[in-house]
Amino acid sequence: MHLLHDPDAPAAEQIDFDTFLKVDIRAGTIVSAEPFPEARKPSLKLVIDFGPTIGLKKSCAQIAARYVPNDLVGRQVAAVVNFPPRQIGPAMSEVLTVGFADEDGEVALFQPDRPVCDGSRLF
Questions:
Q1: How wide is the angle at C-alpha 110 spanned by C-alphas 36 and 14, nearest 5°?
Q2: What is the CATH number of the domain that holds 66?
Q3: Residue 118 lies in a domain
Q4: Which of 68, 90, 94 is nearest to 82 (CA)?
């Protein structure tokens, strides 16, 4: 199992709070989702609304093994919004949608347990 998917892996090295604040994780609502067959691993192309300040951002997420595009529209998720854009095959991914590995090593999306404002920051 990959270290990031290993629930028995030790915690990462300690960091201070200012370092944590450098990673900008925001809530957003998925406004569109479509298959991304060109990706190496089962993936979907998402457009996520992070509210008026950050706006709409694209994400290529390796979540096709567990999620159907139509079921994702309207769902809130969390994503890192301050990584540089990354070319994934023919698509550009502007944010990193975050989740946890389930028992099969597939991504289970992270989401708030109740609706929050799009663009709300994780703290």
A1: 115
A2: 2.40.50.140
A3: no
A4: 94
pLDDT tens per residue, range 44-76: 999 999 999 999 999 999 999 999 999 999 999
pLDDT at 4: 61
Task: Examine residue 2 and state whether it is found in any structural domain, yes or no.
Answer: no
pTM: predicted TM-score of the whole model, two decimal places = 0.92
How far, in Å, CA of 46 to CA of 32, rounded?
6
State which H helix or E strand residue 107 sits in: strand 107-109
pLDDT of 52 reads 98
Q: Torsion-angle region of residue 105: left (phi > 0), alpha (psi -120 to 50) or beta?
A: left
**CA–CA separation, 96 vs 82, rounded Å?**
9
